[in-house]
Amino acid sequence: MRLFRSVFLLSCAVALVGCYSLQRTSSTALVPGERVAFDVTDAGRVALGGSMGPEIDQVEGRLIQRDNGDYLLGVTSVKLLRGGYQTWAGEQVRIKPEFVGSAYQRKLNVGNTLIVTAIGVGAVAAIASQQLIANGVHEQKEPPLDTAVTVRRPPRGVRFTLLSVDISRIPFIGRR
Is the C or the N end of the chain the one with fewer CB within 10 Å? Predict the structure, then answer.
């Protein structure tokens, strides 16, 4: 039962986290509260350069509000032109529509999520089955010392005394 519960919880966790990707969409389809990204145009780089830096390629975050065509974005990351990312903590930035080249919406990638979930469930099942097999093998433990069980030990060597000579002390004949 514990195995089933572990596999179920792992698959739920992976499904909740999921694999997301940015998919191109029209800017009119964007709804406040969604995770979105905008490719920034050259005019946008010039206008936003003072507050966000001059090398902005793409801005990602949660769309807070859309009024008069402007986007109010809680920025979570900024992709730079020459590679690399800057992480932001949800600072609000107002972006005009003329600063946006392309708009993207963050969507669940069902295929990748199912693959990752299947791999995770398989890994947990393999680990759990190894644990079950290991629990089935019992090691033979020695009895506690306070019981009356006799422990037999093999003799260390054979000793014969002949004419008051201990043979075990003679090299190559006795063992020592």
Answer: N
Residue 171 and residue 148: Cα distance in Å, rounded? 39
DSSP reduced 3-state for 52: helix
Determine the Cα–Cα distance for residues 7 and 132; give it in Å rounded to an integer: 14
| pTM over cut 0.70 | no
Q: How many domains does the chain have?
A: 1
Residue 45 lies in a domain: yes
Q: What is the pLDDT of residues 111-141, one digit of tens each?
A: 777 787 778 777 777 777 766 655 555 555 6
- For residue 170, being part of any structural domain is answered with no
CA-to-CA distance for 32 and 74, rounded, in angstroms?
Answer: 11
| Percent of the chain at pLDDT exceeding 90 | 26
Tokens of 117: 């979930």
Say which CATH number the domain at 27 has: 2.30.30
* Cβ-proximal residues to 105 (8 Å cutoff; 6+ apart), any chain: 22, 23, 25, 29, 30, 34, 35, 36
